[in-house]
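Residues pack. Consider this:
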Amino acid sequence: MDNIYLFMLIAITILAVADIVVGVSNDAINFLNSAIGSKAISMRTIMIVASLGIFIGAVFSSGMMEVARKGIFVPGQFYFDEIMYIFMAVMITDILLLDFFNTLGLPTSTTVSIVFNLLGAAVVMSLIKISGSDEHSIADLGNYINTSKAIEIISGILMSVFIAFTIGALVQWVSRLVFTFHYENKIKNFGALFGGFALAAITYFIFLKGLKGTPYYKDMQGLIEGKEAIILIGSFVLRTLFSFAFQKITNKSILIIVIAVGTFGLALAFSRK
């Protein structure tokens, strides 16, 4: 049993690979369903764009899972073997949870599952440590769990759901209002403006918001901070001109480009976790 931790490390590595397969399958459904369902772009093009998004997102990842790991519990309060038990429990539970939800076709999130798995495993391990000590009580749970950071992460997750639902419903309502009737005429009249707005918004979140938290943001901080409005307006003008030229030259809808760039942005956002 001297090599028990080596076996556990090998097991965690294998479980991590399985977790990535299950998690990426779940995420792929989330960021590919709109592009595939629209049938505006070929499957091959969608896969190429999504693959590029995943690759670039992984390369420029800010390590959000590392932030969650350090934010949920206090590593200094646990021994090495207890940390190993926590991570083993997290890996097993995450695979079972995601696979169960995917099998039943229920919506889930890899971020939510891993955060709450970490929180649950850390709380149980903390309670085990407290119950085995006469000097500590359940009131000392806050010494083991980073409650302020955990609440911040969880509230951020809950708020993101509310904000995403609200903004998504608003954008969908405006899109349907503009393009539902007489689509061919309206896409000619308003397509360039809508395309410019959509592409500028996506570009803003990919580059300006996406750069924050990455190692490269400090090098560009002076060029970006305080100039967001100018960059956004300039991006809107350029994207609108591009949308107008694209529709005139190709005689195709700019929504094709919007779907492709949106798929790229979603893939990049998911892979940055």
Remarks:
- The mean pLDDT is 79.
- The first helix runs from residue 4 to 38.
- Residues 101 and 107 are 7 Å apart (CA to CA).
